[in-house]
Amino acid sequence: MSNSEQHVVVVGGGISGLTTAYAIGRLPSAPQVTLLESSPRLGGCIGGSPFAGLRNVDESADAFLVRTPAALELAQQVNLGSELTEPATGHAYIWHRRLHNIPEPTMLGIPSNRSAVLNTRLLSMRGAMRAMVEPFIPRSKNKLSEQIADDCLGDLIRSRFGNQVLERIVDPLVGSIYATDTDNFSIDGMPQIADLVRRPGSLMKSANEVVGARVPGTAVFAAPLRGMSSLIDALVAAVQQQGAVVHIASPVTDIQQPSSGNFLVNTSSASLRADAVVLATPARLTAKLVQSLDSDSGQILAAAEHASVVLITLAISRDQWPSKITGSGYLVPKPVQRAVTAVSFGSNKWKHWNPHDNSMILRISLGRDGAPMHHLDDDELLKMSLADLGLHLGRQFTPHATRVTRWVEAFPQYRPGHIKRVNQLDVLLHNSSPGLFLTGASYRGIGIPACIQQARRAAERVAAKLNT
To answer: What pTM does this model have?
Structure first.
């Protein structure tokens, strides 16, 4: 049942905004919802297109994490549960002079026992010995409380395990996910690691507890067979079936608050009255929209930083591929990076990414926080990618299909102290503009499941506001 007398405007048509609209539509006596997206397409940083004869090959995230169940639950709710698949291989590599298996057992690169340290040649003997003493370093002597207060992930891992574990294992894993530099990244930016820090005892012991609690053989990632964009398509269909109005190519020019609890959301062609507004937009864009409502919030949001990434998709003949390399891809630690930060062996990773012409699909990532590359032209990016592939894999490749996708300022960077600033934003906006809420990757989690969780929380806050 809908309550047509109440109206909520959601600004932003990425996974966060769409999930917010969907979650609001599922409320008892749901209000009317209008979703406004500035670009000509929905999905935000999720997208795909035909490539090398396949109907859809992702141009960004190609899966979502299952251990945090929010994305899996959403896929099931929008009737995609039967279309989900999991990676065909679970092992990957780190390149440091050659390919090394990612050490196991680890938790986002944090060793969970001594075998994870001793059974890899990624670490020198000295680096391994330094990591082995972590369980014996008292938290008080290591000033762990100060490290947590400083909120720097890189400092934390260095202080506990030494430089090599951070630079050769943890930073490549975390950095490849968020295009970040862990030496300037918040501990709370990786909730799984933040959880380890808050447990008693050493980080190795805490990681061992988490790894030991996992059910063997369960999938870590899942994806729709028709690509991640099919999750967006299903979500859009569900939102519209609920009665929401969705407008693309409709950038919001400003938001006014004529009276408490009442907003006017203005576009170039319309002015919409709203009882509540959810801004599911990147922080810098959000800053412009809230500046007139609360200048302090606008300043905090305007200071947010983002990284840019280029994703190059290649198709090569399968007979060029070294058959002994069976993993899903590899990461490149920063000290040995040239241009490429990570490579996904798409046709190894996904059974449905194997074209009929026996091509092998690769996806190559370039650019990160502090090392942008999106300004380079396509030919230069491709040349650099192929040169790095030759160095890393020991052979030259000749692609017969290429695609270059630029994600400019698409990766929020959670600087130390990030959550404190987000909490401050919540207080400022609650006091100045009750009924206006923020959600999305810029705030309380970057990954797809985290964005979905935040969107659901935003819907709950909208419900509470409308019911007061």
So the answer is: 0.95
